[in-house]
Amino acid sequence: MIVQACINGARPRDFHPLIPLTIDAMVRDAAASVAAGAAELHIHPRGADGKESLAAVDDTLGAIRRACPGTLIGVSTGAWIEGDREKTREGIRCWRVLPDYASVNLSEDDAPGVIQLLRQKGVGIEVGLASVADAERYTSLEDHERVFRLLIELDDEQDLQRACDIRDGIIEVLERSRVNRPILLHGFDGTVWPFVRSARERRYSTRIGLEDGKHLPDGTIASDNAALVAAAVAIFRGQSN
C-alpha cells in the first residue's frame, strides 16, 4: 500500500494557481510531495508551450530524478497527448531517460501495441482500467500478468454509487480471472476522497494530486500538491477519517 502523487495530469493552467507545468515547478512539487509522504510520482511532462508532450519525458525525468533519487517515477502514454498513433509510438521509441513505469489506458485502441513497445523498451506497465470492458480486454491479452500494476481509475464517473459499482465490477473481473497484480485505486474530483478511503480499506495503493482534484477532505482548496499528499497519507496511516 503506497500513496502515489499525480501532480499535474492534463489539467489546464487555470485549474490551480500552483499547478506545475514547467520542469522547475514539477521538480519543486515532486520533491515536496515525496517529503509529504508520497512513495511514487506520476508526471505528465510538458513542452515549452505548456502542452503535454512525450518528447519532454527525457528532460523532465532527468531533472526530477536528480531531486528525488530513488523514487519511482511514472508517466502517461495517453493517446490525446500526441493525438496520433504513430506519433505516440515514435515518442516512446525516442525516450532515452526511461520512466520506471508508464500508464496505458485499456480504453484506447492502440493499448496492446503501446504495451508491447514499453516491454521492448524495458519500461514497467501500469494498466489503466476505467470500465468493466477495459478489465475484460486486459484479461484477454496474452501475458496480461506481465505488468507492473493495475490502475483502477474512474475519471469520467462523478456519481459515487455508480463509480463504486464500476469499481466492484472491475475487481470482480480481475478476481474471476485470478489476476494477481498490485492494484492502485483512485477517484477524480468528487470521488477522490471516497476512493482514497476505499483503497485503504481494501489494502490497495492510491494516488492523489492536482491531476485528480484540488480539494482537501474538508472541501477546502488545497494550497498545493504536498497538502493533498499529506492528507492522503494521514488517512492511510489511520490518523484521519
From TrEMBL:
<protein>
    <submittedName>
        <fullName>3-keto-5-aminohexanoate cleavage protein</fullName>
    </submittedName>
</protein>
<dbReference type="Pfam" id="PF05853">
    <property type="entry name" value="BKACE"/>
</dbReference>
<dbReference type="InterPro" id="IPR013785">
    <property type="entry name" value="Aldolase_TIM"/>
</dbReference>
<dbReference type="InterPro" id="IPR008567">
    <property type="entry name" value="BKACE"/>
</dbReference>
